[in-house]
Write a structure and sequence with these properties.
alpha/beta, Ubiquitin-like (UB roll), 4 domains, five-stranded mixed β-sheet, elongated, secreted
């Protein structure tokens, strides 16, 4: 060969559209000369400029993107004419692999002391984690370019492996048998699997409190010189930082591994000169993410914008079924609901079923259904074992009793309200490291929440088995007894409180409104005179025969206004329950809130608005249209029912209490329409008026229920 070569090159991991040409390179040059030519062609892509650190591979890339005939050019002195006996065709490429980044130590916790803020460790004089992070000097005028390269490097497709795609397909078909559907993300060999990347099949992304993804935050910040952004990736209960990106950026674990190493080595050393950084600062696993966020400023006093990534994807029953059906062939199989429910929550629970299917022998005589159920059972068992060990570790180290008490309250909160009771975060309890609960931003502050069925089950079993908190065991038995006595059924996620409240209200059947304990001392409107509370039946609109189990059935119920039937509504309808009196111009409603702390004013206002039946099918403010329910709202308005309702007994149960104000029951009158609503407010201060002990029916259960609520809400 005498003609100069033109070689197509592609940096490992980049899409085909970013391929570039090295033109007119003499065939007498060697592999080292080719590396030098590549670095000269793309100086910004290879930061240290050391061509000798590159690895080159000759491959053939077919039209479908598959790679064939991969040969590593590992002899630096090999002459190109010996490697290319003929002119390369259009399918021949040189894959350029950068050197693997030197992993920066990733301590379990990093205390990053910034101007204007002191972390827990800084306040107590504890030094930063013992292993220092390697520092690398980046000129100021190169920051924008440097960060762009980091993002580009870390967000590439999981494509360039040495494994042949055909081998992957063959190996996975053998492992999965009848469950094989499409090739799954694979590891370093054809028979291994990248489990951490399986969650990518769902369109669920981890976001900040203002609904921005990592990529949106970082890319929008490149080159900005005004305000500085700080991105906080917490060591969340559900995920470690490395697992965090399984939905966030294509590439899953591969991406985050690269990103963590690069960003730790690049940005962390610059925290001392934050005011000079035209880029997003990423702080991983630091207490900075959980406190004092509004008080952090860079050295020059520039205001810092914080983006706390704390909204992690959670899989419900449908998500678990959906993710499995997209990953494997589940045709002909039915997944039992109780098994689906146990694997709800973090994605690791769901995708562990795939791991267990990989382990099964698919040549045995068991049916496909039996094998799938076996994989579910195995996944549930293994996850339970892991969780059990973490719970025992916590209980074993609990010298004050604080951990066991809080865990017990969380379990009971799950059963009472489906995990929707938020608990104040306490830094000394290592729930986060043990992944037993989630950190969530709620009403402007960070709280704990336990809302995964399998976690609750394991914690409950361990608490009962250990007998370290006899109060919890007693409360649990009482709650189960109350549920049985009242004849209510809790949902798959728990939530026994709302049915219990509805049944408690029913104890006042045949009482005149004026005699109700929670209406004493109130000058009631004329429509209440002689009016009796009577609830003959409690059901959904579907159960009452008003159509399918959906919001439209609620609409039909409200339009018909049947007397003395308590409606358990869909979430879009807004009330927690509603009924019409015998004179159906008048109605009643329930609005229930139970939090771990005092209820913020904004949440109270939404709760109060939700009790107005006239505002059904609207957003939380009772004014704006809910686009998905616009047709139903229009039909409700057209029925003139909102105008026909002249008065509502609106009962608001808000526990422990509304923040900063003592609410009193009163009558709300609208002079324009003439409506008169009785606004009842129940909190811990007057809870006895609603859960009334003066009625003998189920009196003991009412006593236990009040005691249980106070136990859960105890600080």
């Amino acid at each position: 060969m005498t003609d100069n070569l033109t070689l197509y090159c592609l940096v490992d991991g980049e899409p085909m559209k970013d391929a570039f040409k090295i033109r007119d390179i003499p065939p007498s040059h060697d592999v080292d000369d080719l590396k030098d030519a590549i670095v000269r062609k793309k100086p910004n892509d290879f930061r240290d400029g050391d061509a000798n650190k590159l690895t080159l591979c000759r491959v053939s890339i077919h039209d479908d993107g598959t790679i064939h005939d991969k040969t590593e050019l590992n002899n630096p002195r090999a002459v190109l004419s010996t490697l290319f006996a003929a002119s390369p065709d259009d399918n021949t490429y040189i894959i350029v692999q950068r050197p693997a980044p030197v992993p920066a130590p990733i301590p379990t916790r990093i205390s990053t002391c910034l101007s204007g803020h002191l972390s827990d460790e800084c306040l107590h004089g504890t030094p930063m984690s013992a292993t220092p992070i390697p520092k690398r000097y980046i000129p100021y005028d190169s920051l924008e370019k440097e960060l762009a390269l980091i993002i580009k490097d870390a967000s590439q497709l999981h494509v360039w492996h040495t494994v042949d795609a055909t081998n992957v397909e063959t190996a996975q078909k053998e492992r999965l048998g009848p469950f094989y559907k499409n090739a799954l993300p694979y590891g370093t060999t054809a028979s291994t699997m990248k489990e951490a990347m399986l969650g990518m099949v769902l369109d669920k992304e981890s976001t900040s409190s203002d609904n921005k993804t990592l990529r949106e935050i970082v890319e929008s910040d490149i080159g900005k010189t005004t305000n500085l952004s700080v991105l906080l990736l917490t060591n969340d209960a559900q995920l470690t930082p490395e697992q965090f990106f399984r939905e966030q950026i294509i590439g899953g674990a591969v991406t985050i591994g690269t990103l963590v190493n690069m960003l730790r080595g690049f940005l962390t050393p610059l925290r001392a000169t934050l005011g000079n950084v035209r880029a997003t600062l990423v702080v991983l696993g630091t207490s900075l993410s959980l406190q004092g966020e509004d008080n952090v400023y860079p050295a020059v006093g520039m205001r810092t914008r914080f983006h706390s990534i704390m909204r992690f994807p959670l899989f419900d029953d449908q998500d678990v079924e959906h993710v499995l059906s997209k990953l494997i062939d589940t045709s002909g199989c039915t997944i039992p609901h109780d098994k689906l429910r146990k694997l709800t929550g973090r994605a690791q629970f769901s995708v562990s079923v795939i791991r267990e299917l990989f382990k099964l022998n698919h040549t045995n005589p068991h049916t496909k259904q039996a094998r799938l159920e076996k994989a579910f059972d195995s996944a549930i068992n293994l996850v339970s074992i892991q969780l059990r060990g973490r719970v025992r570790e916590l209980l074993g180290g609990d010298t004050t009793g604080e951990v066991v008490h809080l865990l017990g309250r969380m379990v009971l909160a799950f059963k009472l309200q489906g995990g929707k009771v938020w608990f104040a975060r306490k830094a000394q309890v290592k729930f986060m490291d043990n992944a037993l609960c989630a950190l969530r931003v709620h009403s402007g502050s960070v709280h704990w929440l336990m809302d995964e069925s399998l976690v609750v089950e394991v914690v409950e079993e361990e608490l009962e088995h250990s007998n370290v908190d006899l109060g919890f065991s007693a409360q649990l038995r009482q709650l189960n007894g109350i549920i049985e006595h009242f004849g209510v059924k809790s949902s798959a996620k728990g939530n026994a409180l709302e049915p219990l409240v509805r049944q408690s209200l029913r104890r006042f059947n045949n009482w005149h409104l004026a005699d109700l304990p929670f209406l004493q001392g109130i000058e009631l409107p004329a429509w209440c005179s002689g009016q009796k509370l009577q609830i003959d039946e409690i059901n959904t609109a579907h159960g009452f025969g008003y159509g399918a189990d959906n919001t439209e059935a609620d609409l039909n119920f409200l339009i018909n206004r049947p007397s003395n039937k308590l409606l358990v509504q869909q979430s879009g309808t807004r009330q927690d329950a509603a009924w019409f009196f015998s004179d159906n111009r008048y109605a009643g409603s329930l609005a229930i809130k139970i939090y771990g702390n005092d209820i913020p004013q904004t949440d109270h206002q939404k709760n109060e608005t939700s009790s107005d039946i006239r505002c059904s099918f609207l957003r939380a403010d009772g004014v704006r249209m809910n686009p998905s329910l616009e047709r139903i709202r229009d039909a409700f308005v057209a029925s003139v029912v909102p105008n026909k309702i002249k008065g509502i007994l609106r009962i608001h149960l808000e526990l422990p209490r509304v923040q900063g104000v003592q609410l009193a029951t009163h009558v709300k009158r609208d002079p324009a329409t003439g409506t008169e609503d009785v606004m009842v407010h129940i909190d811990l201060s007057n809870i006895d008026d609603f859960f009334y002990e003066g009625i003998e029916e189920k009196k003991e259960d009412i006593l236990y229920l009040k005691k249980l609520i106070k136990y859960v809400l105890a600080k």
